[in-house]
Amino acid sequence: MARHYYVLAAALLAAGSGTAFWSSSCTASTAPRTAASPSGTTTAAELAQPGWTVASRSARGVMVDHRNEIVGGSAFLVLRLRARTTLLRWHVGSLDPPMSTGEVPVDAGSAIFWPSEGLAGVVAVFNGGFKKAAHSGGAAVDGVTLEPLVRGDMTIALNAEGHWSMGVWGSATFPAPGFHAIAYRQNLAPLVEDSRLNPAANSPDWAQWGSPLNNNPLTPRTGLGVDANGNMIFVATMGRVGVAQVGVALLRAGAVTGMELDMNPFWPVLGAASTPLHAPGGVFNVQLPQSEHSPSIFETGWTRDFFVALAEPNSWRCNWSSPGLNSSVTTAQPQRLHLHGAQCGSAMTSITAGATSGAVTTTPGPG
Fold first, then answer.
1. Cα 258 to Cα 138: distance, rounded to the nearest angstrom
2. Domain parsing of the chain, residue ranges
3. What count of other Cβ atoms lies within 10 Å of the Cβ of residue 365?
4. What is the DSSP string of 277-312?
5. Cis previous bond, 175, omega within 30
6. Exposure string for 81-109, b = 16+ CB within 10 A, e = fewer
7. Pseudo-torsion of CA 46, 284, 302, 166, nearest 10°?
8. Alpha helices in 16-65 (DSSP H)
9. Which end of the chain has less neighbouring CB within 10 Å, N or C?
């Protein structure tokens, strides 16, 4: 059965590849290089950048890269998802955010949903936000509101194509017109906004940024941001840091907007694979040093919410999508992925060319 599934996944991958469906703000994050598409047109590919190490790439170019940042003596591992070559999904943990049995479809449940997400291929995973009991904001997925969204909180929104948008809930510009989200996750007030650190990050009232173990505000922390090119940035450290250091790490990595995610030693988890994973048991070559958990916990089920990054297909004229939400439906609406676009039927090579030789490291060093 497992072998049959893998062959099916490989066949679908061989048939597919992705379109430029994102907004003009999500442009190539390096000087453009052209690559021929199956239709004979050219599209700028995502290039490697100095100072970043490639974790994975496809025919479209770089999918995931990473670097190290040292802030206040603590090492942060920075993971970047390229907006034009990857997509993102949000999952609910088995215990948090709490829900009734069967309330959330399996595609957003406590484990990577291999029958759907495995078709595209998992290229990265990382932890979500605070527990519901922390009252850090709202959350919704697949038409199910797990916690009401809070005005003024920083919010990550994901649409049916797995594209993302980040902004302050209730502001006039978020979500942008035409962005139809299928998932929302909030976690406290903005940490970075308009390329500036929130002054409250340096406030002596550190409790507003979460409840640390033993009331020590210096603790392992994580954060999420979006840069000027629309790329997603995740930062994590097992060092003892304050929230301001998370914000600085986001800014140094290029974030123009950002939010804190989970904290304390038990919760930071990060993994990136050099080739897309289509079934459990794959290798996450890039991991957070000294993390208390392997990212493989997301393959079979985890208690807390988390994010899964997937590979877009090779062609610029085909991408992964899900049905989206129907406003007339009041129950949960599963969001299984399918291929969509003009070039999905043409024969394609493997979804990835792999990482460059020696490109993947797992241990932050001086940045």
1. 16
2. 2-19+80-190+263-340
3. 8
4. E-STT----EE-TT-SS-TTHHHH--SS-EEEEEEP
5. yes
6. bbbbbbbbbbbbbeebbebeeeebbebbb
7. -20
8. none
9. N
Q: Which of 266, 123, 126 minimizes the C-alpha distance to 185?
A: 126
Burial class (CB in 10 A: 0-12, 13-18, 19+), 328: exposed
Q: Are 128 and 147 in contact (CB under 8 A)?
A: no
User: Which one-letter DSSP state was computed for residue 246?
Assistant: H
Cα separation, 347 vs 11, in Å, equals 10
63, 355 Cβ separation under 8 angstroms = no
Under a CB-based contact definition with an 8 Å cutoff, are residues 303 and 269 in contact? no
Which two structure tokens, joined as six digits, stand for 43? Answer: 């599209």
Other CB atoms within 10 Å distance of the CB of residue 17 = 27
Give the type of residue at 106.
Answer: V
| Planar angle of CA 287, 69, 28, nearest 5 degrees | 85
Q: How many CB atoms lie within 10 A of CB 123?
A: 30
- Tens-binned pLDDT, residue by residue, of the chain (367 aa): 333 333 333 333 333 332 222 322 233 333 333 333 444 445 899 999 999 999 999 999 999 999 999 999 999 999 999 999 999 999 999 999 998 777 999 999 999 999 999 999 999 999 999 999 999 999 999 999 999 999 999 999 999 999 999 999 999 999 899 999 999 999 999 999 999 999 999 999 999 999 999 999 999 999 999 999 999 999 999 999 999 999 999 999 999 999 999 999 999 999 999 999 999 999 999 999 999 999 999 999 999 999 999 999 999 999 999 999 999 998 999 999 999 999 897 533 334 433 333 332 333 332 2
* Closest by Cα among 54, 183, 204 to 109: 183
**Are 19 and 293 a contacting pair, CB within 8 Å?**
no
Bridge partners (DSSP) listed for residue 165: 157
